[in-house]
Amino acid sequence: LEQFIRANRNRTGPQLEREYGNGASLLLARLSAWLRLTYLLGLGVHSLLSAISIFVAASSGSRFLTEFIETGGVITVLDILAVDVLSEADKRAAVLLLHHVANAGRHYKE
User: Fold this and answer.
1) Which of 14, 15, 45, 103 would suit a FRET pair with 85, their CA atoms being 20 to 30 Å apart?
2) What is the tens place of the pLDDT at every residue in 48-67?
3) pTM for this one?
4) Segments making up each domain of the chain, as ranges
């Protein structure tokens, strides 16, 4: 996961789609599901949030943002902020992900 983050940190939506083909959306769905299933354990939350942020913050990647929101990703991230067992670094990564969603425009903020 860390290697994925390093390799894709500054890619745009089209670059991610070209790199992973139709598998980019599937990868985002798997990462989102993995986060939902494991965030209460507190293991790897920061890495998962960082990987998801790559998709959500990608320039011209509104499809990824829409998919993340439609699968309940924002609700999961808000739940992460309320969990006491998670570190401050995990919560900062959650706030950063919410920041990326908010930066996408009013439509996504609501």
Assistant:
1) 103
2) 999 999 999 998 888 999 99
3) 0.92
4) 2-109
